[in-house]
Amino acid sequence: RAKQEGRNTYRLYRAEMHVKDHQQLALETALRNTVESGEGLEVHYQPLVERDSGEVHGAEALLRWSPPGFGAVSPGEFIPLAERSGLIIPLGQRLMRLVAAQLRAWRVAGLAPPRVAINLSARQFWQDDLVEQVRALFEEFDLPSGLIGFELTESVLLDHQQQAVAILEALRGFGCHLAIDDFGTGYSSLSYLQDLPLTTLKIDRRFVQRLVGEDSRGSAAIVAAVTGLARELGLRVVAEGVETEAQRQALSRYPVDLLQGYLTGRPVDAAGFERRWLRALVAWEGAAIARE
Ligand code: C2E
Ligand code: MG
Ligand code: MG
Ligand code: MG
């Protein structure tokens, strides 16, 4: 009997594997088509808000994908798939062009959009011609220096620090802000914060979310240390994943420059982001006039 059950479990396992493989393959084919056609791909923008003034300082570009026949697939699923298949390279290039074209469209409409940060995975960062791609992007879309920036995780910068410095410096040459994403979740030593030409440190949302409630002391100590360190190193600090007023309150005790999270704005499409940023602008200018 045991043997029989074992065999059945094995068969079931095989069947599940088969379905899974099949789905993965179908998804990969769909991703390949999207990379070719752009169909089902959209950029959402999540505001980065100045903690003290409420002004929208910038946005993070986040890919959204709804392939025909699948419904929405989360980035947590399709980004790793894109990584494994190598499709992240053409996908990332598409994203960069979509963002640049959107920034251009806003400028042509007479608006002054805030800076937009693009996520770069290791494979993207280490492309031979990344710097040239970025240079060409600024030129083709006639974007002012610094309007596009990048976010990298600690693991991207762990190896080959010398080469990383050269690439980061070249990007800084276009005025790009360069952020360390999800800070505190990697394994890196702290020395690279000093050695690399970064502008921004984004504290991972797990620390922000544990600032409130039971056993908040550990997170409070980490946030105090990290923000203090960033301040000393001249880095701008972003708190990620701020969801509640209580978290915002807790963060007011530390030198945090910018907030990003559902509390200050969810990722929304370009039209939604435009409304969000113009609303903040009106409020901010209104307050400035009231102060005069
Ligand atoms: P990330 O770069 O750390 O982006 C922040 C993620 O946190 C986003 O998830 C965002 O929707 C989510 N988030 C923002 N505010 C809150 C909040 O208050 N609470 C919670 N619980 N979550 C919040 P999303 O869009 O699902 O993206 C997940 C990850 O996928 C990103 O993490 C990034 O690593 C990757 N990703 C997304 N778009 C791209 C892309 O264009 N290129 C690359 N290479 N990676 C991307
Ligand atoms: Mg990011
Ligand atoms: Mg992040
Ligand atoms: Mg994160």
From TrEMBL:
It comes from the Bacteria. The chain holds residues 317 to 608 of 608 of the full protein. It comes from Halomonas flagellata. Residues 24-281 form the EAL domain. This is EAL domain-containing protein.
